[in-house]
Amino acid sequence: MPEVIKVKSGSPYEDRESYSRVVRIGDWVLVSNCAGRNYATREMSTDPVEQTRQAFRNIEGALKSVGAQLNDIVRSRVTIPNVDDASDVMAEVGTILRGVDPASTVLCSPLGGSEYKVEIEVTAFIGAGDADQERKVITL
Known about the structure:
The chain is of the alpha+beta class. It contains three helices and six strands; from the N terminus they run βαββαβαββ. It is globular, with a radius of gyration of 15 Å. It starts with a strand and ends in a 15-residue tail after the last strand.
């Protein structure tokens, strides 16, 4: 039976809505949607690109708390409520995940409040970033 570790970040939503920021099951790591709010100060920029950067700082902290790192990400899901922000947000995601190349889904859908410009959820597999990787280009 694999070990299960559940970690909360201190967000009031985690207790109210009964979820964990990150769950590790064996070498699999699931990180809940992360917004661009600084968890320590509770501040959040109004800029979608800065929210993207902060969301990844939050994700990186969640991953590190269970022994994973950004380059272990194998799946990302990015939700951007304003389609006009998508190009800038995804360019920043591309910069942050350059060379990691996870499977990715991008949605333009409403979030929990108008102040949220992006939320990002990831799945990681511990050691994936250090593993030998075969990269292919195929025609589908």
